[in-house]
């Protein structure tokens, strides 16, 4: 394989056309092998990346309920169904059952078909009218949980961010407030005469029942409220306008009613008053505060979409969820501590957040985490609660940093800037008979709905055909792993069905509070495993790189002795051996089909990425990177694995550059998009001209435009992305140039001979092999007999 085949292009983004297509589904293999043995020879697992409620301009919305196949199949009518218009019968493509059309479909004919049968409508959304058309949809709930163990400057940033958020909230949204330090304080916003606060001790674990009891929202009161109000609503105020003492409305008020009260409370907000001895950390009860928030939301009736938005500025040091003692001489756990089982609080904290996740999933509520601190705050422990509920996560250095400020603002914006935050989602998957589902990696929870479609091997959230997504948005992406297991019946003589079918059904409550059902039905071809050409033609190397990254991240978390680099190397060698063109034991003859040609480069960058080389990051950062990798689209995830690099110079328009140290030149500006950070890197000559102020002189207008161009492009990347990436502006040989150098292929290192280094370029101080050496080794091992 010529190295240039494996080294084409600097980035991994999709083409200008939409790579996800109208269905938002991408697969590792678009032609599927028919048997388990043939599938295992393919090396790469058969998996699909699904974006359940992706925004699409061509989406057809149907204002009626869907037509379903008879149980146990229950698939929805779709364009792949065979229809007999005279007998008014349709045959389900998944289970081959014959179904009669109901009377209201009596008018259908070849020239008059319903929207769900249009060939182009493989994805449709059903918006049936609500049962009670007069009742308004339930308002969303935002419960803010604020850390007060902060220095005055950080607390000021939190106050201003909260004021902006309150201004942006829709008037009908219900808002609540909890602050915590050594104790957790819940504010009764409905008590207007004075500030009324419920205080919970931070050192003691407290159950949901105890919380409701203390707040006067005992089960009897909640039941009474649930009967009085419509399903899915909070119990409203009584006729005289007063909030009854048993109603959760004392704590959760419409934003329009409590804006003044909230702003007054924010003005009065003070740093945690509990005395801290020298050499000690603040006593911070994050776990109790989140328990109180989840308990309070437990008093809402079912179907209420709610988010707990936690702003945390340091580690939990007291009570449940404790991750480090308050003695500052004890450092927060590192990857080395976790590997050696020397993190005494880790497993107990994870268990606490696992139970909190179960409670929130049961209630259908979301936990969003905004962590801003120079030290770790416990994202690694909280990961389970955020990911299982489909929550958002942002990790920044300070509450004053644009990464936090701009990301926090984005979740409340509407219009084109809106993230499309939705609630109460469930995903069901139905497929053809010979396919089983191993599980899903991504922001969801298994609903333990076992059935004939469940595979014996479990990957991620498995053992089910139905998953709960308490929170989801337009970019939420899930990875579904399939198992091919033909039954005895399917190997009977006769003509086998050449196509397989998979249907994804997503029920969710959209940002306006209306229930919707998104139905996506896809088809792919079965191929005989010996027909390598068809398999190769249907291979998607970008999806494969991302699926493997998600899979090894899961295995690194679950299996202590798992060696990710070795596993990736072996898989890549087997794959190249199976699908490469070569003569045995002749590495010079090795070539790869274009559909596989960039995969070695992806694997090279994945091995060097933060997902595999975890020791240079904290456990919090690793958990953060993995959560975003698991929920982002394929295009975005590829950029996390293999950043894109653009070059700007006087001689040519902006152009993609190789992700290599040779791309550095004194008279170039480079723009690196590494997803979590965007780096503008000025070559030495450019930096000197800028420092001398040439761009301010009228005769050097072209230089001013050259300096500005990467800033404009960086801004357009930052505007479209959540969480907002960190912008780094640096110069060649400057201290922050490390953000670029760490991502480049080390084709020139400190060991290189002088003639091997491009004049004016740079060298990388590393012992890592270059892509060229990696590919040479790969070729040699792949052709071995």
From TrEMBL:
Protein name, UniProt field: Protein transport protein SEC23
Stretches assigned to the Sec23/Sec24 trunk domain: 137-412
Function: Component of the coat protein complex II (COPII) which promotes the formation of transport vesicles from the endoplasmic reticulum (ER). The coat has two main functions, the physical deformation of the endoplasmic reticulum membrane into vesicles and the selection of cargo molecules.
Signal peptide per UniProt: none
Gene3D superfamilies: beta-sandwich domain of Sec23/24 (2.60.40.1670), Sec23/Sec24 helical domain (1.20.120.730), Severin (3.40.20.10), von Willebrand factor, type A domain (3.40.50.410), Zn-finger domain of Sec23/24 (2.30.30.380)
Molecular-function GO terms, alphabetical: GTPase activator activity; zinc ion binding
Family: Belongs to the SEC23/SEC24 family. SEC23 subfamily.
